[in-house]
User: Fold Transcription initiation factor IIB from Natronocalculus amylovorans.
Amino acid sequence: MSENVRRFTDQRTATRKKDTTERSKKEDVRCPECSGQLATDTEHGETVCRDCGLVVQEDEIDHGPEWRAFDSSEKDQKSRVGAPTTQMMHDKGLSTNIGWQNKDAYGKSLSSRQRQKMQRLRTWNERFRTRDSKERNLKQALGEVDRMASALGLPDNVRETASVIYRRALNDDLLPGRSIEGVATAALYAAARQAGTPRSLDEIAGVSRVEKDEIARTYRYVARELKLEIKPADPGQYVPRFASDLGLSDESERRARDLLETAKQEGIHSGKSPVGLAAAAVYAASLLTNEKVTQSEVSDVANISEVTIRNRYHELLEAEENVRV
Assistant:
């Protein structure tokens, strides 16, 4: 054993003995009046006796935060030790990023030599952040998820869920034989349906780099292998978005929901596209409330053909008449 290793071992042993001695002394401290056990009152910053109530020490230093939080999200917002971890980044946001601005802390521009140095640092920092093929795969996929979610206007909780689904697929070796973009798109589609903010396959395919058939095939495979519990899409979940894009009132939206409920009672929704039913319900509701919109406008918003809207429109009105009779 070398001299440095022996010295390090002796120092570590001495530190352990010192910590053990201090801990035992702290535990053996008793009340000076009745020899009772002492307790620390963090709210008042005092050390008191549990038996007689004597205040042994007061005005203790509180090493905790000066703020209070009542839930986890509020705690993350008030904490000043860095950004909270997120599943939307391959390293969960724990690594360091070097800003792209070539300016110092005072806002002054860097010299050419300093700019070259910072560019080299950025390059090496990027290399260290993605050390192996798995991390590079994850970085590319999560970037795709974020891009598509931004284009579709999906909230952060959907992006987080999609990132978790992709991580599970990567850990379970579901990617061999499939493209990174295809699995990432399928994860986003599944996450949107789980969160109750679904997007149709046509909408997903419109912002993805893979074809619609590949997305559907990969989605079925991922959902089956990961045993994802996803309910069938409800047409009513599409109504608020369609009504908002068309500028319809709350009355029209409520009327569209009533038409869909009637269709469910009559059983005509089975086997039909939920997007087509929602679009037809919004179109019918706009006519019933005198907020007329054209089939072409609804078709553009819902990304579905006018023929489908007309067919479902007549079916919804027939179901409404049958219930009234």
